[in-house]
Specification:
It is an enzyme of class 2 (transferase). This is diacylglycerol O-acyltransferase. The protein has 13 helices and 15 strands. It is α+β, with helices and mostly antiparallel strands. The chain folds into two domains: about 1-150, Chloramphenicol Acetyltransferase; about 200-455, Nonribosomal peptide synthetase, condensation domain (Chloramphenicol Acetyltransferase), CATH 3.30.559.30. Helix 1 (about 5-15) packs across helix 6 (about 180-190) and helix 6 (about 180-190) crosses helix 11 (about 345-355). The protein starts with a strand and ends with a helix. Mean pLDDT is about 85; it is low at about 175-180, about 190-205 and about 300-305.
């Protein structure tokens, strides 16, 4: 039995029919060269034999003295969680994305462990897919990515590899896997920030500086300046998922020519896509959109602990020039990072929690809808840097599937894999019609930057 942290409880409180609170991932694999046509069915039989379920997948919700706790599910039904399914013909990526869109719309049964693993056959070109979803109270996006990476190998000849629910248990002391989850920072204020009283002076000083600058400078992005937008309306429970890969070498060439980071460039791509999408609906606000973005503040090459802050970044969507928009984003992100330069990691966490307090209040209560802190979520989760394999099948692409919420109808999450940047967009089907067109607009945004920089 394990008590849920206040942060994890927030994800349960937030969940409702139109607002499922699970994160997910879609992975594409290619058959081994010598594999028979029924390879995926053989793999399904192998996976059904993996009945040893390890943490955190053996846990279901329980209650003790009226408080939610994690308890071991003594009657875990693996057939409920592992599902072998086939796409309808002709088995294109379009059918796969439609499948994920539908499945990601469904709430999970709280009487069972809160995860599902879908093995999907029927794709063209001797490929198959895996779609996994896990409730955010159980893991966040970064820890889910790390679990998935543990399932993979860099050795194409390795076999008998376990699925994600049956990975060997790890000893304690491997460090915090919570990672830079944006929702955890929002929830932190509501659950735990009162414990760090020693951070109050620095946090208060930084927060007052933010408020004072916001009052004097209308171009400064803070809790007061996110414009009203169709992205921030009420949503339904139906989702649209769109995903695509983009060449990392092209993005790095733009970085080199403009003295920017990969994160700056992908944010500029997102800004361009949002600008085009909203202009086509005659719904682009005059003021620039604001994104909530986690950024790394690490100053060394260490791997332990969390050195991540969340910034509210202006996307420069009021600017028509692609290069000018990229420079605008770079300077805005740079100023936000400088604000954190003299703060400890705990002070940064509490500062961002307080800065996002209006968003947290809105998400939990639905009150004060005019407190629009940001318009969209843009998150970058690092992925494998080398080609990866699972039981001899090569991983061709991996796409994050995140969370859309009331007043945050679009989430743009991306991850890196080898020489690719993999975008996963999740949004409300009704609020954001034809969301898949944004994939073309992302490509157009990158092309516009290349042209503007003479590449």
């Amino acid at each position: 039995m394990k008590k849920l942290s206040p942060v994890d409880q927030v994800f349960l409180w937030l969940e409702k029919r139109q607002q499922p609170m699970h994160v997910g991932g879609l992975q594409l694999f290619s058959f081994p060269e010598d594999a028979p046509d029924n390879y995926v069915a053989q793999l399904a039989d192998q996976l059904r034999s993996q009945t040893a379920v390890t943490a955190p997948f053996e846990r279901r919700l329980g209650s003790r003295f009226g408080q939610p706790v994690w308890v071991d599910d003594e009657h875990l039904d693996l057939e409920h969680h592992f599902r072998f399914e086939a796409l309808p013909t002709p088995g294109r990526i379009r059918e796969l994305l439609a499948f994920v869109s539908a499945e990601h719309s469904h709430l999970m049964d709280r009487e069972r462990p809160l995860w599902e693993f879908h093995l999907i056959e029927g794709l063209k070109d001797r490929q198959f897919a895996v779609y996994t979803k896990v409730h955010h109270s159980l893991v966040d996006g970064v820890s889910a990515m790390r679990l998935f990476q543990r399932m993979l190998s860099t050795d194409p000849d390795e076999r008998n590899m376990p699925p994600i629910w049956s990975l060997p248990r790890r000893s304690r002391g491997h460090g915090d896997d919570s990672g830079p989850s944006m929702w955890r920072n929002v929830a932190h204020l509501l659950g735990e920030s009162g414990k760090q009283l020693g951070t109050v002076p620095a946090v208060t000083k930084a927060l007052l500086s933010t408020v004072n600058r916001a009052r004097k400078d209308p171009a400064y992005d803070s809790i007061f300046h996110a414009p009203r937008c169709v992205l921030n309306g009420k949503i339904t429970g139906s989702r649209r998922f769109a995903a695509q890969s983009y060449c990392l070498k092209r993005i790095k060439a733009v970085c080199k020519a403009s003295d920017t980071t990969v994160n700056d460039v992908v944010m500029a791509m997102c800004a361009s896509a949002l600008r085009t999408y909203l202009m086509n609906q005659d719904a682009l606000p005059e003021k620039p959109l604001v994104a909530m973005v986690p950024v790394s503040l690490r100053k060394d090459d260490s791997s332990e602990g969390n050195q991540v802050g969340i910034i509210l970044a202006s996307l420069g969507t009021h600017l028509n020039d692609a290069a000018g928009r990229l420079n605008y984003i770079r300077e805005d992100v740079k100023a936000s990072k400088e604000r954190y330069a003299s703060m400890s990691s705990e002070e940064i966490l509490n500062y961002t929690s307080l800065l996002l307090a209006p968003a947290g209040f809105n998400l939990l209560t639905g009150l004060a809808p005019k407190w629009q802190t940001f318009n969209v979520v843009i998150s970058n989760v690092p992925g494998p840097k080398e080609p990866s394999y699972w039981n001899g099948t090569r991983l061709e692409g991996m796409y994050p599937v995140s969370i859309a919420m009331d007043r945050i109808a679009l989430n743009m999450t991306l991850t890196s894999y080898c020489d690719q940047i993999e975008f996963g967009l999740i949004g409300c089907r009704r609020t954001l019609p034809s969301l898949q067109r944004m994939l073309d607009y992302l490509e157009d945004g990158l092309t516009d930057l290349e042209k503007a920089l003479g590449l």
